């Protein structure tokens, strides 16, 4: 798949492990070409791919959303790219992305602390929604899902993802206590919730710190974000837990409408009520013109979460504004 004829395109920053290892080092080893853009540009993306004859490219899920939301471009048609290597491809646009742009999605997972990836294999072995299996199991790359006590859980059960392999870090620089928190008996604790099916395929659920713990229910923010992003007027979303004196935590959604679209909070409540269980419908909704992004295109949800800790009023409140919302919208 990757040889001296490969030409990898990336606009991700070189200080990030993705561009450092999978693009730069990968092309050095393969003897192929690396096409670098100093800063990701959605408007120039397909023109670059076509002009430089790139055979594949690297993305993060939020950037895939941006590309898919743009109007069709003359350069996206018959472009030379064959596949995209990505982390966090939104399931709701996965097949549509492949069909529209003519590329195969290769979903993966890794960490700076443990760069040897898990990868969803191409072709008939691929499972949509999964980030695949640990690569190079013959070198000792292994993964398991555990509960809060560290006990391995049955297939299909959500728990924390642990991995072990020869490429993982020795430890955090001059931080032995922090290292001890995440590395135990050779296993690296990822801080991510995931599940494993009976064929060993792994599925991302959420970051542990962004799971909403509401009245004893563990609610994945990614699940809510995926549904909200499928609304035709929504460009991007960030869902976080906010403190609640009765339920422990409640759900808040920051929603960025598509340019030129008029969107009301009530529309989103009605939209969600027909698609998820009632307790997963966000109580608080804040419509925003923009969201804070990292240089790699991820929303800085931790920044939003920290700001909400200081607020007593979390904004537009579904229960105050639409007290009868469950009966009105037939929430199940």
UniProtKB/TrEMBL annotation:
Which GO molecular function annotations are given, in alphabetical order? Answer: medium-chain fatty acid-CoA ligase activity
Its keywords, alphabetically, are: Ligase, Membrane, Transmembrane, Transmembrane helix
Give every AMP-binding enzyme C-terminal domain span: 223-297
**What GO terms describe the biological role, i.e. biological process, of this protein?**
fatty acid metabolic process
InterPro entries according to UniProt: AMP-bd_C (IPR025110), AMP-bd_C_sf (IPR045851), AMP-dep_synth/lig_dom (IPR000873), ANL_N_sf (IPR042099)
Pfam families referenced in this protein's UniProt entry, alphabetically: AMP-binding, AMP-binding_C
Domain AMP-dependent synthetase/ligase, first and last residues per copy: 11-173
Its transmembrane ranges are 20-40
Describe the family membership recorded for this protein in Swiss-Prot or TrEMBL: Belongs to the ATP-dependent AMP-binding enzyme family.
* Listed name of the protein: Uncharacterized protein
């Amino acid at each position: 798949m990757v040889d001296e004829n490969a030409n990898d395109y990336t606009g991700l920053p070189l200080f990030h492990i993705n561009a450092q290892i999978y693009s730069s080092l990968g092309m050095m080893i393969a003897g192929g070409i690396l096409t670098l853009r100093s800063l990701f540009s959605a408007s120039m993306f397909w023109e670059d791919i076509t002009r430089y004859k790139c055979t594949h490219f690297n993305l993060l899920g939020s950037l895939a959303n941006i590309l898919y939301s743009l109007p069709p471009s003359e350069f996206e048609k018959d472009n030379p790219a064959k596949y995209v290597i990505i982390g966090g491809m939104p399931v709701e646009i996965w097949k549509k992305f492949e069909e529209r742009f003519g590329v195969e999605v290769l979903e993966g997972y890794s960490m700076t602390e443990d760069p040897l990836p898990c990868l969803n294999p191409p072709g008939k072995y691929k499972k949509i929604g999964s980030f695949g299996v640990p690569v190079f199991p013959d070198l000792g790359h292994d993964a398991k899902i555990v509960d809060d006590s560290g006990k391995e859980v049955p297939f299909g059960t959500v728990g924390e993802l642990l991995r072990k392999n020869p490429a993982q870090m020795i430890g955090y620089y001059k931080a032995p206590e922090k290292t001890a928190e995440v590395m135990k008996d050779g296993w690296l604790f990822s801080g991510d919730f995931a599940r494993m099916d009976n064929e060993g395929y792994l599925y991302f659920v959420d970051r542990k710190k962004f799971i909403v713990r509401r009245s004893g229910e563990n609610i994945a923010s990614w699940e809510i974000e995926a549904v909200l992003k499928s609304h035709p007027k929504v460009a991007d979303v960030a869902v976080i837990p906010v403190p609640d004196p009765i339920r422990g935590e409640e759900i808040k959604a920051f929603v960025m409408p598509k340019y030129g679209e008029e969107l009301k909070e009530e529309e989103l409540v009605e939209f969600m009520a027909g698609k998820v269980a009632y307790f997963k419908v966000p109580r608080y909704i804040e419509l925003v013109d923009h969201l804070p992004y990292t240089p790699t295109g991820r929303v800085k949800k931790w920044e939003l979460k920290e700001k909400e800790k200081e607020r007593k009023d979390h904004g537009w409140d579904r229960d105050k504004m639409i007290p009868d919302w469950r009966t009105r919208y037939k929430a199940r």
